[in-house]
Design a protein that fits this description.
single chain, alpha+beta, PmbA/TldD fold, 2 domains, six-stranded antiparallel β-sheet, 9 helices, 19 strands, 38% strand
Length: 448
C-alpha cells in the first residue's frame, strides 16, 4: 500500500472550493462540504487458508447547503467537476422543498477553529499483502500454541490511512490525515460437548504499538478455553466486577445517553440532569480531544469547532453533554465541539491506588461474578434500564473458580454507575474510551 497521502490535501481543498462555488451559483446562502480520500489493506486468514484479501480505496464527498433555514444534503464518490456541479444543484433543489428549521445553519465563524493542532494522527504502515499474511499466520500460531482443544476461527490484519478536508462558506477550510491499524483473532474452543468462541483485538494509529501477533492469538484462545469449565449459576443479586473491556461498554452507554440527539428527542434519562449526581462521588469522566496519536483525537469536529479538555463528570456530578451546533441549538446550549461524538474519554476514581491491579481487583470482588463478555442491545437510554446477556467467571475468595455462561445481568444504568465501589489501575483503551476494571456493589443476575 502507499505510505503517503501527499497529494490528497491539495486535491481535496481544490474540490471543496469548486463545490462551494457551485453551491453559491445554485442559490445557496450558506454551504459546507466534507471530502475524504483513503486507502488500505485488509486480510483474513482462517486455519492457514486465505479467506479474503482486499486493497481498499475510497473517495467520498458530502455537501450540505442552506437556503435560509432550509437544508439540503447530497453525497457522492465522484470528484469530477460535472459531478460536483450536479451535487450542488441537487442539494439546492432539496433545500427548496424542505421545511424551515430554526436550528439549522452553520456555526458563527468566530467559534470555528482558527489554527487546528497537529495531533500526530497519521502514521502509515507500509505492510505488503505477503507481510500481512505472515502476521495473520503468527496470530494463528498463538492460538494453536494453547493446545489441541482450541483452533482459529479467523485472524485479521488491517492497515488504513485517510485524509479528510472540511470547508464552508464562512471561511473555514482545513484538513488532516489519520491512520488506523489493527490485528485481531477469533478463537474457538471445544471439548466435544461444549463450544465457545472468543475474540481479542489490538488497534492503534502506530503499527509499532500493536500487540505481538502471538499474544493476540493466545489471549483469544485462553479466554475461549476458560469458558469450557462452565458451571450453572443460580439467579440472585451478586457483587459484580466488569473487566476493563466490559467497563468501557458502560462508558459507551453513558456517552450515548449524554449525546445531543438522545437529549433533544427526550430519549435519555440524562436530559436536564446537568449538575446532578450521575455516578458515585469518587468518580470523574475526563475528555481530551488533543491527546497525541489518540484513537479518539481530532483537531475539530464536522462543524469546524474544536472540542475541549474537560471533566464531563466530576465528583460524580454531570458537568457537560456531547453536543453539535445543531443539537446545542435544540437544547438552548452552546456546542461542545462534539458533532462527531465524544473524544478520548477516561474514567477515574479518587480511590484508585497504584496497587489496584487485576489481582487486587479480584481480591476486592472477593465473592461474585466477573463479567468478561456482553451481548445484545439491552440498554434503554430513555430511563437507564439495563439488561444484557453475559459470560464470565465465578470468583470465590478472590480466585476464579469456574466459568459462567448463558446468564443475564440487569439493573439501571444510573444506579449501576452510582454503585461503583472501585476502579482498577488495569487500564485499557478501546477506541475513544479508557477504563480500568469496575467493581459494582450488586446487580441482579438471571441464571439457571
Amino acid at each position: 500500500m502507499s505510505t503517503s497521502l501527499e497529494q490528497a490535501p491539495a486535491q481535496l481543498a481544490a474540490a471543496a472550493e469548486q463545490l462551494l462555488d457551485y453551491a453559491r451559483q445554485s442559490g445557496a446562502s450558506d454551504a459546507q462540504v466534507l471530502l475524504s480520500s483513503g486507502h488500505g489493506l485488509s486480510l483474513n486468514l482462517r486455519q492457514g487458508r486465505l479467506r479474503a484479501r482486499r486493497a481498499e480505496g475510497h473517495n467520498s464527498v458530502s455537501l450540505t447547503v442552506y437556503r435560509g433555514q432550509r437544508q439540503g444534503t447530497t453525497h457522492s464518490t465522484d470528484f469530477s467537476a460535472a459531478s460536483l456541479a450536479d451535487m450542488a444543484r441537487a442539494a439546492c433543489d432539496i433545500a427548496a422543498h424542505t421545511a424551515q428549521d430554526h436550528c439549522a445553519g452553520l456555526p458563527d465563524a468566530s467559534l470555528m477553529t482558527q489554527a487546528p493542532l497537529d495531533l500526530q494522527l497519521h502514521h502509515p504502515w507500509a505492510v505488503s499483502a505477503e507481510e500481512a499474511q505472515a502476521l495473520a499466520a503468527r496470530i494463528e500460531q498463538g492460538i494453536s500454541d494453547q493446545g489441541p482443544q482450541v483452533q482459529s476461527d479467523g485472524a485479521f490484519v488491517s492497515a488504513y490511512e485517510a485524509c479528510s478536508f472540511l470547508a464552508n462558506s464562512r471561511g473555514f477550510a482545513h484538513g488532516y490525515a489519520q491512520s488506523s491499524h489493527a490485528l485481531s483473532a477469533n478463537a474457538l474452543a471445544s471439548d466435544g460437548q461444549r463450544r465457545h468462541l472468543s475474540h481479542w483485538r489490538s488497534h492503534e494509529r502506530y503499527s509499532e504499538r500493536l500487540q505481538m501477533p502471538e499474544q493476540i492469538g493466545a489471549r483469544a484462545a485462553s479466554k475461549a478455553l476458560a469458558y469450557l469449565d462452565e458451571q450453572p449459576l443460580c439467579t440472585g443479586r451478586y457483587r459484580v466486577l466488569f473487566d476493563p473491556d466490559m467497563a468501557i461498554s458502560l462508558l459507551m452507554d453513558f456517552a450515548n445517553a449524554a449525546s445531543g440527539r438522545a437529549l433533544y428527542t427526550h430519549g435519555s434519562y440524562l436530559r436536564d440532569r446537568l449538575g446532578s449526581q450521575v455516578m458515585a462521588e469518587h468518580l470523574s469522566l475526563s475528555e481530551d480531544p488533543f491527546q497525541l496519536a489518540g484513537l479518539g483525537s481530532a483537531p475539530f469536529d464536522s462543524d469546524g469547532l474544536s472540542g475541549q479538555r474537560r471533566r464531563v463528570v466530576e465528583h460524580g456530578q454531570l458537568q457537560g453533554y456531547f453536543l453539535s451546533t445543531y443539537s446545542g441549538r435544540r437544547l438552548g446550549l452552546p456546542s461542545t465541539g462534539n458533532a462527531n461524538g465524544p473524544y478520548n474519554l477516561s474514567l477515574h476514581s479518587q480511590l484508585t491506588r497504584d496497587s489496584d491491579d487485576w489481582p487486587a481487583m479480584l481480591a476486592q470482588l472477593d465473592r461474585g461474578l466477573l463479567v468478561a463478555e456482553l451481548a445484545g442491545e439491552g440498554t434503554h437510554l430513555i430511563n437507564g434500564d439495563y439488561s444484557r446477556s453475559a459470560k464470565g467467571f465465578w470468583v470465590e475468595n478472590g480466585v476464579i473458580t469456574h466459568a459462567v455462561t448463558g446468564i443475564t445481568i440487569a439493573g439501571n444504568l444510573n444506579s449501576l454507575l452510582g454503585d461503583i465501589l472501585a476502579v482498577g489501575n488495569d487500564v485499557v483503551t478501546r477506541g475513544h474510551f479508557s477504563s480500568g476494571s469496575v467493581l459494582i456493589a450488586h446487580m441482579q443476575i438471571g441464571g439457571r
